[in-house]
Amino acid sequence: MTSQGRDDPTSEAAYFGRRRLLSMAPGLIALASGSGCEGPASARALQPVRAARSTRFSVDRAITPASIAGRYNNFYEFGPDKEAVAERARRMQTEGWTVELAGLVDRPARFDLDQLARLMPIEERVYRFRCVEAWAMVVPWTGFPLRALLEHVGVKSDARFVRFETFGRSHGVGAPGFETQSWYPWPYVEALRLDEAMNELTLLATGLYGRALPPQHGAPIRLVVPWKYGFKSIKSVVRIELTRTQPVTFWNGLEPREYGFFANVDPLTPHPRWSQATHRWIDTGSRSPTKIYNGYGGFVAQLYPAGPSARR
Q1: Kind of pairing, strands 278-281 and 135-145?
Q2: DSSP state of 136
């Protein structure tokens, strides 16, 4: 699932044949069963995360079962096979993880997860998640608004963009199997415009399904931007930097024709290799019409007066 949103550049059709995941037993992953996730990440991944559910963000569809969401993951540091990511990510190292706030901020800082839990307003939010590959799910995230963290460190007046970076070899954390994907320009980088980052929907998630994030979902902290295609929702964040100029981002830098910088969900603008007019729900295989901004237009349409794909 949930990519860094990590939405890979293979065709939509290549994934439609993977319906065998629908028959997987709910006990396959630790997220659902409380067992089976061994290795260094397991202690944190199995911890319950208790937070009140927000009633402001409603979804007119049932939550996707954790057993399915946990076995359908884009996370290219562990390879391109969605169904192999959960197993490959089990040994991911997350102990001692910190997140650095840098760039055009008043008070540069580095936070560990316990500090963030004490400082930030933690809540659960149920969001739709829409991949650029034209599949979708509904996920209950636990986390806090990115805006709260940015306000805590202070944003300088000339800041225009927020750049996010995930782990790399130099961070001393991360991914066995990284070497097998050495041709990519690691580390993974994403970015938002400052007004997008400050929108109330934009979330830094530290849990889902009532537990801390397991590795395949972006442990221990990730971005969630529900009105954009999933590759914007970067996983396993180690650095957040405010900048004056628009950063180069991972997929947009590799293939700008297929992966726009803004990447707002838009049913009227097809991917070069498939339509975005509908999407497939990964739990049922049924298809639904795609909603502009993934159904969140009431929260974000004012940010894009020229429409969702005017600048892609």
Answers
A1: parallel
A2: E
pLDDT at position 56 is 94
Tokens of residue 275, six digits: 């339509």
Q: 23-32, 69-78, 239-248: lowest mean pLDDT where?
A: 23-32
Measured in whole angstroms, how far is the alpha carbon of residue 281 from the centre of its chain?
Answer: 17
Strand partners for 237: 166
pLDDT in tens, 284-299: 999 999 999 999 999 9
Cis peptide before 187 (omega within 30 of 0): yes
Q: CA 123 to CA 26: how far, in whole Å? A: 25
Mean confidence (pLDDT) of the chain: 85
Return all residues near 273 (Cβ < 8 A) that are at least 6 apart: 11, 12, 258
Surface-to-core class of residue 14, CB atoms within 10 Å of its CB (0-12 exposed, 13-18 middle, 19+ buried): exposed
Other C-beta atoms closer than 10 Å to the C-beta of 289 total 8
The Cα–Cα gap between 270 and 161 comes to 26
Q: How far is CA 285 from CA 42, 99, 135, 292, in A?
A: 30, 37, 9, 21
Residue 53 is encoded by which pair of tokens? 């559910």
* Length in residues, the chain: 312
Q: What tens digit of pLDDT does each residue of 211-246 get?
A: 999 999 999 999 999 999 999 999 999 999 999 999
CA distance 294 to 91: 33
d(C-alpha 140, C-alpha 66), whole Å: 10
Total-model pTM: 0.86
